[in-house]
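Renewal narrative, Specific Aim 1. Our central claim is that a sequence can be written position by position from structural information alone. The example that follows is taken directly from our test logs and has not been curated for this report. It begins with the structure tokens describing the chain, in the order in which they were read.
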């Protein structure tokens, strides 16, 4: 629009200039032709003078001839001089016209003849008087010369008149032309100016409407901006702020007077204000969108961080008219981000120090962290793998699942996998595979959900597991073989042993005192050995039976089992003078014979390992919290050093020599085997010289 107006005015000026120049030239040319017209008039005037001069010469010549008065003579002379001057002037004025110049010598010749005739007349008057002079005049010669003269003058005059008429035509033409140009140029200029004026006025109206619309828009924006949660403001095209929303004043506790223009710097932090001013000034200058982050002081003097943006509002021609800006409080977000960053760095530190290989994978399946252990396990240097696909080190299908889970944002699937190791095989850089256990956990981070995989090389574990399985199997086999052997051998040994034993006893009975004393002693050793061997074999048999018994467990009133045991021990009890007491005992699920055996062994030991005083043994049972019954057999005997608490339950382990107490070291091992077979435990509490209490716990019968 502006350009159109400029163009219109510009062309109007150019046209006026052209018109001016053309008409100036027209004027110049017409004044030139006027000059020629004037020139013609001058020539004609001089010709008239010449005629007048000649007439005066003739009349004064005649006057003198008739009167002889000197006055005529003087007039004659003056006219002669004037005629000469005028003739010279005509010559000069007609220099440009050769036609006229051609006539001049004849004219001068006639003039000279006339003068000569005049002089003759004057001479005659003086010398011969009036008559002679009048006769000379009357001869008619003077009239002829005059007629010639007038003829010549009129020739020149006619030529000049012809020129004059030509010049008049030319001059009129020029004038008319100039007039026409002037008229046309003025009309055109006025038209263009009027057109431009119309465009301008139309534009002014349009601009007025646009401005009104703009103001309305601005008003609406203000209303809106007063109701948003951000601080907002408006600046003019140069960046001078003239309006802030209410929130700005509420936040900063300032007024528009303080803040107007560039006053906003007052609530900026001194460390940031210069940078902010520089940047925003540059944006205002270049009309670029502005964005910056900085702290602003609130009404209480505390600073909060804001993300600030401003956009230019342009008119239809792209000229910036206003700037609209907002400041969004991002303190909380920044705090959270900083926190997260700290967490992340701590977390990273932790991962680096972890004893397992740790690989962190981003939602795109790319490795973002690879700790030292991972380098060791997979044989890569971290730089080789960070940023690469995780499928480089773990099987394809699994990696995809892992990524899919990660993408599901801390998905349930992944959460379920936390803590549950998944065993699969990892791939080293050299292509070899090895068993790994992998544990996953999701980690929300700024880059989305990362999957953290803790990876453990379980090659060793697998190996020892395999080893263990093998060992257990072998152990079981050798145990089975041993039991088989123990049973078979003790069973089969009994028969020959019984024979040896009965014959040695027979030998002792029959030949005691009949051989020498040495023989008696030898026989006694043999009998003793046989007895001990029988005891041992019986115990071994009992031990192997405890392991091989396949009888079912039944409900057994433990009291009756104890009673049977005491019956078996009656001789021992009698001989030792022991007092065995017991509380009410519960019914338990057990093998009665074996429970009897346990009681018998424990009570037997309690009596056997006694001190000088009479042994007192007490059997009781208590229900403990773990759904089981705990039986106890307490004595007042020798007691046991705590360091042997475990060892005494091992087969053939004895704390006392054969000379002190008889025994095979099998009793407690049998007890242990029986109790454990029935799902229970056995242990001892004791203090040397203060007595011991053996405990064994058996599971309670369900529902009782
Ligand atoms: P044995 O009695 O045949 O030697 P046991 O297996 O029954 O074998 O006992 C192992 C050892 O535990 C005994 O040799 C004895 O030293 C010790 N012992 C067992 N019961 C008692 C007890 N009530 N008081 C002291 N020592 C005991």
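The sequence written for that structure reads:
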């Amino acid at each position: 629009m502006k350009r159109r107006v400029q163009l219109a005015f510009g062309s109007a000026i150019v046209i006026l200039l052209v018109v001016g120049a053309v008409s100036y030239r027209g004027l110049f040319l017409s004044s030139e032709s006027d000059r020629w017209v004037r020139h013609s008039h001058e020539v004609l005037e001089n010709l008239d003078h010449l005629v007048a001069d000649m007439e005066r010469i003739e009349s004064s010549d005649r006057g003198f001839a008739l009167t002889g008065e000197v006055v005529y003579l003087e007039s004659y002379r003056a006219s002669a001089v004037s005629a000469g001057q005028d003739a010279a002037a005509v010559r000069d004025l007609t220099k440009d016209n050769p036609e006229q110049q051609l006539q001049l010598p004849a004219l001068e010749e006639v003039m000279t003849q006339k003068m000569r005739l005049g002089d003759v007349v004057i001479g005659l008057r003086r010398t011969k008087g009036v008559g002679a002079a009048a006769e000379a005049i009357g001869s008619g010669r003077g009239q002829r010369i005059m007629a010639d003269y007038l003829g010549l003058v009129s020739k020149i005059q006619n030529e000049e008149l012809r020129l004059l008429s030509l010049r008049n035509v030319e001059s009129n033409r020029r004038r008319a032309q100039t007039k026409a140009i002037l008229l046309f140029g003025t009309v055109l200029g006025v038209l263009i100016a009027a057109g431009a004026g119309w465009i301008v006025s139309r534009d002014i109206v349009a601009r007025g409407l646009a401005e009104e619309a703009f103001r309305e828009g601005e008003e609406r924006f203000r209303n809106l901006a007063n109701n948003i949660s951000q601080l907002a403001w408006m600046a003019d095209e140069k960046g001078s702020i003239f309006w802030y929303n209410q929130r700005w004043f509420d936040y900063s506790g300032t007024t528009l007077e303080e803040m107007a223009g560039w006053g906003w710097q007052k609530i900026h932090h001194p460390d940031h204000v210069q940078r902010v001013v520089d940047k925003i000034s540059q944006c205002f200058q270049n009309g670029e969108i502005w964005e910056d982050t900085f702290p602003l002081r609130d009404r209480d003097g505390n600073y909060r961080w804001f993300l600030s943006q401003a956009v230019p509002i342009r008119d239809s021609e792209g000229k910036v008219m206003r700037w609209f800006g907002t400041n969004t409080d991002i303190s909380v977000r920044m705090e959270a981000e900083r926190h997260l960053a700290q967490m992340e760095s701590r977390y990273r530190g932790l991962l680096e120090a972890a004893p397992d290989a740790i690989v962190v994978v981003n939602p795109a399946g790319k490795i973002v962290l690879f700790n030292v252990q991972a380098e060791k396990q997979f044989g890569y240097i971290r730089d080789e793998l960070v940023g690469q696909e995780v499928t480089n080190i773990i099987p394809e299908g699994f990696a995809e699942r892992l990524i899919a889970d990660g993408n599901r944002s801390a998905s349930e699937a992944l959460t379920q996998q936390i803590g549950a190791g998944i065993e699969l095989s990892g791939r080293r850089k050299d292509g070899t595979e090895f068993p790994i256990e992998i544990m996953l956990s999701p980690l929300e981070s700024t880059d989305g959900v990362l999957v953290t995989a803790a990876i453990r090389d379980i090659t060793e574990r697998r190996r020892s597991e395999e080893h263990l399985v093998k060992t257990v199997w072998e152990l079981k086999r050798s145990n089975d073989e041993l039991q088989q052997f123990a049973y078979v051998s003790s069973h089969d040994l009994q028969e020959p042993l019984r024979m040896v034993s009965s014959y040695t006893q027979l030998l002792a009975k029959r030949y005691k005192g009949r051989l020498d004393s040495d023989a008696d002693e030898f026989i006694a050793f043999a009998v003793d050995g046989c007895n001990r061997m029988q005891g041992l074999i019986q115990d071994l048999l009992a031990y192997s039976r405890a392991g091989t018994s396949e009888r079912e467990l039944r409900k057994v009133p433990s009291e009756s089992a104890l009673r049977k045991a005491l019956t078996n021990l009656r001789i021992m009890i009698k001989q030792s003078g022991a007092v065995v007491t017991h509380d009410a005992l519960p019914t338990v699920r057990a093998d009665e014979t074996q429970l009897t055996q346990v009681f018998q062994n424990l009570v037997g030991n309690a009596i056997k390992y006694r001190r000088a005083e009479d042994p007192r043994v007490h059997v009781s049972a208590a229900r403990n919290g773990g759904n089981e019954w705990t039986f106890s057999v307490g004595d007042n005997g020798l007691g046991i050093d705590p360091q042997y608490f475990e060892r005494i339950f091992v087969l053939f382990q004895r704390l006392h020599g054969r000379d002190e107490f008889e025994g095979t070291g099998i009793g407690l091992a049998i007890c242990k085997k029986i109790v454990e077979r029935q799902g229970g435990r056995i242990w001892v509490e004791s203090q040397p010289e203060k007595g011991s209490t053996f405990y064994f716990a058996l599971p309670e019968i369900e529902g009782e």
